[in-house]
Amino acid sequence: MRQPDRLDSRTLEALNARLLNSQFLSRKASGARSVVKVSEACCGINSQDFLESFSSFWARVNKFQDSDLFSELRPRGGLVRTWTVRSTMHIISTKDYYVHVFGGPGRRFRPWFDKAARKRGIPDRDFRIRSLYEPLLHSIKGRAVTSNEVKQFMVERLGRLGLPSRMKLSRGWSSQLSYGLSWSGLSEMSNLGLLVNAGRRGSQSLWMRAADWLSPGRSAPDPDRCFVELVRKYLECYGPASRADIVYWTFLTKADVDTALDALKKDLVREDYNSSVDYYSFGESSGGLSGPPGLIILPEFDSLMMGYKDKSRFLSHHKIKKVFWGLGGINRTILLDGSVAAIWRKKKELTGMMVTVEALKTLTTRERSSIREGFAAYGEYLKTAVSVEFKN
Fold it and tell me: 107-164+184-213 architecture in CATH?
């Protein structure tokens, strides 16, 4: 009879080794297009904070330089940045773009977009695409535009169509009414696979037509099959994983996940590892894998931290609130021998950067020395001096 307890330590150790190897954390990626390989291996790199995401690549690519990422994160390149899983920004492979966008949480947000539009007096989705989005896409063909330029286009377009372009937000101290843009469409266009993020110009985000960013001749697959392929890609990268893990990562409904698992069942291997939970994978062998590296330094929102609902592969249950806090907050982490051993914070100083390490276990002298050496290497990448202090 299966027991409802957690996975035993030996199983966790084996799964952890498999995960770190697959994510290029045990042995860093090398060679041409390493950043694309890493993005594919992680099913996208979380890029909610764009600058932090560079450190995720640094942790996984041998001798990584920012130029390695920019060489692929460009029109006709191998990477694209857009809203995808959990409706957060990710850097994903361009070849996986439509699977992520059509198969991700945009499916769940369609009714929300429709409801939000109705509240603002904006007609249905077909109207929005035909009368708002297609004219914008035609006007920006072949170039990147700022968020403000998109918003200004929408103000003018809505006004020309006799639709509300402004909505009342609040009443301030001076009794002056405060108004905001009724509808910019940026998020919906991204979720419809029409716009992608194209970097920044000063303080403004840039946007470009997806058709201009992707390689010529790319055709969109059947949207109704993309969520199945997204579950497949997740399990290829993170499996074995439970149904709860899949729901958590994809932000799909439980019904959609069950449909996907049923569609994939002929290829899936199901394991219970003597627990009450079923774990799904495609049966890849974990034999011959190297052990976890002594030290891994990860930034905020790293994709490893967001891979599972059950964090026990790399984080003890009683430490979870130290790493995950508030509504979506995730601290920077330090892994020792494959498990989270500390969190860290950084602060810019006149002479460089100060890193404060808060240990989640008792650190030996050797481990502290290893952490200092790791941050020295991180400083070399950043081209700045890094000082390390330990918080008891």
Answer: Orthogonal Bundle (1.10)
